[in-house]
Amino acid sequence: MTTNILEVSGLKTYYKTRLKEKVFAVDGVDFVLEDGKTLGIAGESGCGKSTLALSLMGFYFPPLHYGSGSIQIHGRDIMKLSKEQLRTQISGREIAYIPQAAMNALNPTLRIIRFIEDIMKEHRPELTKKQVWDMAVDRFETLNLSPKVLRSYPNELSGGMKQRTVIAISTILNPKVLIADEPTSALDVTSQKAVIKLMKDLLDKQFIRSLVFITHELPLLYHVTDDIMVMYAGEIVERGTAEQMIFDPLHPYTKKLMGSIIVPEEGMKGHKLAAIPGTPPNLKHVPAGCRFAERCSYAQDICRQNNVAVQEVEGRQYRCHFDTGTLKEWYANEQS
Ligand SMILES: Nc1ncnc2c1ncn2[C@@H]1O[C@H](COP(=O)(O)OP(=O)(O)OP(=O)(O)O)[C@@H](O)[C@H]1O
């Protein structure tokens, strides 16, 4: 029997602006992550990916606020826990989060081992300094990271090594889920590959059980995650297997995201390269109907008027008024 490690239902979270307006950056998100599965979340900048990650961690600090819906981590509703319970029982132990640019946030005056000692002081106070050191060396060696790094200061490490170190530190307590927000952006291709290999090693060696990988580059997820969800203007617009999402997208936005790739991944040569015309709607004033209609080449009156329900077809979900036959016919005609 498969268990769900993460269950999110009807989640709405918002930023409160200085003018007291509510900007719903996560606007009715539902999804499930099964134990042992990896999930990619893709979408253009500003669609709500990072806000979703913060929300899943229960990191509600103004201006970000919880609106409604539930988040269950291994069956526990995190919204029913106190901030203290979240910090000591969930964060790092059940679910670990690597925010964007985390590698640049390491205190430059501390050696890497100190970050691990601090985590252990909080979660495994019974361990001696020597035991923590041995454990850290063992973990680094298992992950093909030089234990010498443990004695280094952050600024002595290259960008790629710093990022791998941050990931190794964040997963030291063997959390069930790792949420990594743009872990490979700002790295050269070789370092990107090393970071992805590290995350695969963490899964293979069962230091983590599931992974959520956030990126604005949809094709990057092809070799990394089992499933992919695409977000647009605070909503999930499509979810399917990585294969389906990359090679057989249903939602016109997913289709356009695939067409807008800058550096084609291996096996994806031949894709048309084009920017997606227009910009996403301002989340302060989302339009009626489909949020993508303004930029969609197939949009019709119904799209601008009626709210769009999620359709489920053979285990895939997509948020569009049109059926799969109609969409595929349009796409085929466009190619011919
Ligand atoms: N402090 C804030 N106050 C008001 N609105 C905010 C704030 N932070 C973010 N937002 C809005 O929330 C939306 C989602 O932002 P978020 O950072 O989650 O997007 P993202 O998809 O992660 O983008 P990126 O890939 O650039 O990080 C954006 O449209 C942004 O304008």
TrEMBL record:
Ranges where the ABC transporter domain occurs: 6-258
Q: Per UniProt, which keywords does this protein have? A: ATP-binding, Nucleotide-binding, Transport
Any GO molecular function = ATP binding
What PROSITE patterns does UniProt report for this protein, alphabetically? ABC_TRANSPORTER_2 (PS50893)
Q: Name one GO biological process term.
A: peptide transport
Which SMART domains does the entry mention? AAA
Please give the superkingdom of this protein's source: Bacteria
Report the family membership.
Belongs to the ABC transporter superfamily.
Q: What is this protein called?
A: Dipeptide/oligopeptide/nickel ABC transporter ATP-binding protein
> Which species is this record about?
Paenibacillus rhizosphaerae
- Print the organism lineage: Bacteria, Bacillati, Bacillota, Bacilli, Bacillales
